[in-house]
């Protein structure tokens, strides 16, 4: 069952990544990228890395994609701007893509086929519970110092963003 799910998620990830590149509408391109991030999250869950899966959903598929959509909608891109590209730019793009393909194929041809060893496998390695134990046991001081730093940054952002009583609104 896990192998079929892996192949399904891989095919969907490759298809959505191709649609990101070939989609004419930038909003559709961002939506396909969100689908690709969800497929990547599925791969993390198959690898028993729940923390990475949750962080991927919250940070990438949530916050960063909202930022991308905001920028795309803020720019209000027109389709007329893309039609005036000179043929030299298209030629350079094809040459660059071809060189990237050659580099990728040469790197992948040198990779050896490694087998996973079952005797050294620990199924508890990617769980959030184990990460929490390590954070609160071995790295308690750096974790608490980072939380104080984040708190100071939030208070500073609120103080900088706060308007004074006599300030003009632009």
Notes on the structure:
The structure is a single chain. Helix content is 72%, strand content 0%. With 170 residues, the protein is an all-alpha fold.
Give a concise summary.
The protein is mostly helical and 170 residues long. The chain has helices spanning 2-22, 26-46, 50-75, 87-109, 128-137, 140-161.
> Largest beta sheet, briefly?
none
User: Kindly state the mean pLDDT as a whole number?
Assistant: 84
CATH topology of one domain: Four Helix Bundle (Hemerythrin (Met), subunit A)
The parts where pLDDT drops under 50 for at least 5 residues are none
User: Helix and strand succession?
Assistant: HHHHHH
What is the CA-based Rg, rounded?
23 Å
Count of extended strands? 0
Number of helices: 6
Inertia-based shape: flat
| CATH arch. level architecture of one domain | Up-down Bundle
Tell me the helix content.
over 70%
CATH class of one domain: Mainly Alpha
Distance between the termini: 58 Å
Q: Structural class, from helix and strand content?
A: mainly alpha
Using brief descriptors, characterize the structure shown.
single chain, 170 residues, mainly alpha, Four Helix Bundle (Hemerythrin (Met), subunit A), flat
């Amino acid at each position: 069952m896990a192998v079929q799910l892996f192949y399904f998620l891989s095919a969907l990830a490759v298809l959505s990544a191709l649609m990101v590149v070939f989609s004419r509408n930038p909003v559709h391109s961002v939506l396909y990228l969100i689908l690709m991030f969800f497929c990547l999250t599925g791969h993390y869950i198959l690898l028993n890395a729940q923390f990475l899966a949750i962080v991927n959903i919250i940070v990438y598929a949530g916050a960063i994609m909202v930022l991308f959509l905001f920028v795309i909608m803020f720019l209000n891109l027109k389709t007329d701007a893309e039609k005036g590209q000179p043929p030299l730019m298209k030629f350079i793009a094809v040459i660059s893509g071809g060189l990237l393909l050659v580099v990728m194929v040469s790197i992948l041809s040198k990779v050896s086929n490694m087998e996973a060893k079952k005797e050294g496998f620990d199924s508890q390695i990617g769980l959030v519970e184990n990460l929490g134990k390590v954070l609160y046991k071995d790295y308690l001081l750096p974790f608490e110092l980072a939380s104080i730093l984040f708190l100071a940054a939030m208070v500073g952002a609120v103080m900088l963003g706060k308007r004074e009583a006599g300030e003009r609104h632009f």
